[in-house]
């Protein structure tokens, strides 16, 4: 579903991602762990074209994410058509939810399907209500985000991501901004999605999720994937650096 070859990203000449190679199969759940500043968010943002890589290749479901390099060695941007294709294929869930504050829960969910996918409004509303039911938020469909708890906002954000019927969902520390007692309500939904076969890439500090739900775990440090494997391989035989990282977050 996602194929990354030789991905590099630098900001003003400082490398943030170096020679990242990664393949993610359809239906796979991959957790990405690693210290702050390692480049985890930048990796997700490159997949979704929120950042343009400095070099390298990314394909999503066989479609190249960017054009080839131009004469100056820079990657040129996609056509608008390809950007929309990508944005409907790859949904993202952010640490800070990023719901539109001036729209109700329901409006937040139908916005993408109606404006980007051109789905008739009534059909979008009917689908949104099914998704809200799934995340336990149907009763709040007319509320504004400010009137919801963080856990409720994140559940709405997940419903919004699903409303685009994406091929992949990227989660960037989806529970890190939540009060501890609200973390489980978001994780439960993510577990359900994983069981339903959704392809998911999850940057997380929730080691129980990484260990029990993911098929594969990547440890990223200084912009490189320094260790990867099944949860069993990663947590039972963690190397010295990863061991000290794991201690640091407990
Ligand atoms: P992580 O998500 O693992 O904490 P990030 O991908 O957010 O790490 O950041 C990796 C590095 O890239 C950090 O040093 C950060 O300061 C830098 N960085 C991220 N985004 C930008 C940007 N837009 N401009 C300049 N530097 C950035
Ligand atoms: Mg980050």
Automatic annotation (TrEMBL):
GO terms for molecular function: ABC-type amino acid transporter activity; ATP binding; ATP hydrolysis activity. Residues 2-247 form the ABC transporter domain. Keywords: ATP-binding, Cell membrane, Membrane, Nucleotide-binding, Transport. The keyword Cell membrane applies. Its main location: membrane. PROSITE patterns: ABC_TRANSPORTER_1, ABC_TRANSPORTER_2. InterPro entries: AAA+_ATPase, ABC_ATPase_HisP-typ, ABC_transporter-like_ATP-bd, ABC_transporter-like_CS, MetN_ABC_transporter-like, P-loop_NTPase. This is ABC transporter domain-containing protein. It comes from Paenibacillus swuensis.
């Amino acid at each position: 579903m996602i194929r990354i070859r030789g991905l590099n990203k630098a900001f003003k000449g400082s490398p943030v991602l170096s020679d990242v190679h990664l393949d993610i199969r359809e239906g796979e759940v991959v957790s990405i762990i690693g210290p702050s500043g390692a480049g985890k968010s930048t990796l997700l943002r490159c997949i979704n074209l929120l950042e343009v890589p400095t070099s390298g290749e990314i394909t999503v479901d066989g479609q190249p994410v960017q054009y080839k390099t131009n004469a100056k060695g820079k990657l040129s941007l996609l056509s608008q058509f390809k950007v929309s294709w990508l944005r409907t294929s790859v949904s993202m869930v952010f640490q800070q939810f990023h719901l539109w504050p001036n729209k109700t829960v329901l409006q937040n969910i139908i916005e993408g399907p109606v404006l980007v996918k051109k789905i008739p409004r009534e059909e979008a509303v009917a689908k949104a209500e099914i998704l809200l039911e799934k995340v336990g938020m149907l009763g709040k469909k007319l509320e504004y985000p400010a009137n919801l708890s963080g856990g409720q906002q994140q559940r709405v954000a997940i419903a919004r991501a699903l409303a685009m019927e994406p091929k992949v969902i990227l989660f960037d520390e989806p529970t890190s901004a939540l009060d501890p007692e609200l973390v489980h309500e978001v994780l439960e939904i993510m577990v359900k999605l994983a069981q339903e076969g959704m392809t998911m890439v999850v940057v997380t500090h929730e080691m129980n999720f990484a260990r029990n739900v993911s098929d594969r775990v990547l440890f990223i440090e200084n912009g490189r994937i320094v260790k990867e494997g099944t949860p069993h391989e990663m947590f039972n035989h963690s190397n010295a650096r990863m061991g000290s990282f794991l201690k640091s977050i407990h």
